Fold these 2 entries.
Entry 1:
Amino acid sequence: MRIRDLMTTDVITVGPDTSLKEAARRMLGAGVSGLPVTEDDRLIGIITEADFLTSEADRGAKKRAGLLRLFVREIDIPSSEQTVGDVMTGDVCTVSPDDGHAEAARMMEINGVKRLPVVEDGSVVGLISRSDILRAFVRPDKDIVDEIRTDVMKKVMWVDPNRVAISCEDGNLVLTGGMETKSDAELLVELTKRVDGVASLSDHLTWEIDNTKLDMTGAIRPPYPTGNW
């Protein structure tokens, strides 16, 4: 599934000159732990709760107060507080809206982050989080079956979807029916496994011709008799 199908498009951003207190209030209001930092609609960084904690430690705080503790308990940041631009992370890992959800998951794992800005032509068009990616694995059964019939069988394989009965329960599929060739049956199984949301697959397909055993290496026989005539 493409990131554009999973990402949040209503993205709250802050500028580098925004105060830390204002940035924290926006995070709390939106229920998120990180915000993209933009300037002239271009992504220049990201600020997370970890950046706030680092800022507190740098000021010699005796305790590392979490973001919620900082505001819910009304512990004000001093008037000389730093701005977002002072503590943000400038080296931001991003993804494209046309990347697959697996690529986003891989980038999160490698970089140890919970969310990634989605950038197109330098501008932030969305935000994708771990919870968004999980949605790819809890697709409605009907959507999974429709994709197999329409995209896999009709558009990719050019075979009649009515040849195969597809049952699906919580992403667990059972394929029953007959294909023209064994290679078609094997291809259908392999492509079905790659459909987002498929948890398991039970294959009960049959075929009319086992074309995997045909000798395709022998010399081609001429359609006419050889010799002198």
Entry 2:
Amino acid sequence: MGGYAPDYAKSEAMLETLTLDIMKSSEIEGEKLNRKQVRSSIAKRLGLKIGGLGFIDRNIEGVVEMLLDATQNYTDELSEDRLFGWHSALFPSGRSGMYKIEVGKYRTGEMQVVSGAMGQEKAHYEAVEMKNVKTEMDKFISWVNEKSPIDLVIKSAIAHLWFVTIHPFDDGNGRIARGKSNFRYAIGS
């Protein structure tokens, strides 16, 4: 009987799915990651032998670390500390591109989602006022962790929308929301 061993095929499928998740999530944010580095980082963290690369960019390591924690440790409750850890992993240098950002804590300034060239930005959305972020996040975290009769796909979609509506961080809200949605869907609560 030819073909792959079932465990190898399952590991390869998981590796490919996680790689694709990370690549597509980053592309949404306008980031083009090195696919070989993403795949190698995931394989290394999962203990898979694929002949990994020696050097892996620390930003890729952070994205991989966040997604794997969200999906592999799905029985752990969501917490403020866990979210701060994910945020810190995404921005190990404390910068988003050229801009210094607050990392591993809720934003302390007002937030708008904008597009357009410098000096010609257009505001599409104004997030929750900074003075209300902690209160709104406490409500959100409590709701995410509670058992609910809501279908998991619907709960995941609501959680994603609620999180990005609060927009608690300077940057990385979309990536964390997508990782967190995977987290809640995997829980089955």
